[in-house]
Amino acid sequence: MTTKLLLTGALVALLAIPAAAQQPQESMPTRIRGTVEKLDGQALTVKTREGQQVTVTVPPNQPVAYLVKKNFADIKSGDFVATTSMKGTDGKNHSVELRIFPESMRGLGEGQYA
Predict the structure, then answer these.
(1) What confidence tier does 60 reach under pLDDT thresholds 50, 70, 90?
(2) Gyration radius from the chain CA atoms
(3) Is the pTM of this model over 0.90?
């Protein structure tokens, strides 16, 4: 009888673990890339790369990252920079984009990602 209860408990646990793992995480951030069209109070209107107009409610004190066009000459010694690269036909990574980050972002998201 005890063995039967143990096996039943193990089976229930094995079935419950995958179901619990499939629940979506709360407050997953949504990344929107595009051009800011306007900011009206806490309503931020963005024209996405795909051409859609998206209005986002920005909570108070929410940090927002943005891009400003720079030249190669704007890079200074000690700047925190990142590059986006693509694998070329020679099998090596070739930079297609370089970003200069503010000092306050140093250390965030460092590393190489697929």
Answers:
(1) confident
(2) 23
(3) no
Domain segments of the chain as ranges: 32-62, 67-114
DSSP 50: T
Six-digit token string for 46? 């963005």
Partners of 56 in the β-ladder: 44
- Calpha distance 72→100 (Å, rounded): 10
Q: Report yes or no: 36 and 46 within 8 Å, Cβ to Cβ.
A: yes
User: Is the separation of the CB atoms in 100 and 75 below 8 Å?
Assistant: yes
Determine whether 7 is exposed, middle or buried from the number of CB atoms within 10 Å of its CB (0-12, 13-18, 19+): exposed
The size of the chain, in residues, is: 114
Q: How many C-beta atoms surround the C-beta of residue 99 within 10 A?
A: 13
Tokens 């069209």 correspond to what residue?
37
pLDDT, tens only, 71-81: 889 999 999 98
User: Which residue do the tokens 């005890």 mark?
Assistant: 2
Q: H/E element holding 20?
A: helix 2-21
